[in-house]
């Protein structure tokens, strides 16, 4: 189970994905551009946890994509520029979890 949040506008179809499951406007499987960081978050156990962490981190300025995986505790964040770890820590704390650091 994973939760992923992508910020930006959704195309007129009302869906962020095409019928084939790929993102509109890009090649299937293409990663968003920017800086990718992977963090380790303690305490996530389910999809609700993943969603809460993803939602809070996605509010940080410059974040374009967040993918949280409870099974591994890893949270992958794509942003326009490198993020301050303090901002990520504050977002994770707000969601009710603990940031252990970068994975």
TrEMBL record:
SUPFAM superfamilies tied to this protein: HMA, heavy metal-associated domain
A single MF term (Gene Ontology): metal ion binding
Pfam families for this protein: HMA (PF00403)
All residue ranges annotated as the HMA domain in the record: 35-100
InterPro entries, sorted: HMA_dom, HMA_dom_sf
Compositionally biased residues, Low complexity: 1-14
Region (Disordered): 1-32
Protein name: Heavy-metal-associated domain-containing protein
Organism: Streptomyces marianii
């Amino acid at each position: 189970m994973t939760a992923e949040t992508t910020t930006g506008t959704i195309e007129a179809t009302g869906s962020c994905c095409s019928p084939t499951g790929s993102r509109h406007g890009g090649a299937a499987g293409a990663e968003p551009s920017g800086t990718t960081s992977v963090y380790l978050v303690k305490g996530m156990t389910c999809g609700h946890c993943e969603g809460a962490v993803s939602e809070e981190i996605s509010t940080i300025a410059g974040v374009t994509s967040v993918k949280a995986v409870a099974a591994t505790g890893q949270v992958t964040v794509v942003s326009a520029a490198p993020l301050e770890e303090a901002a990520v820590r504050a977002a994770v704390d707000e969601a009710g979890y603990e940031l252990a650091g970068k994975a």
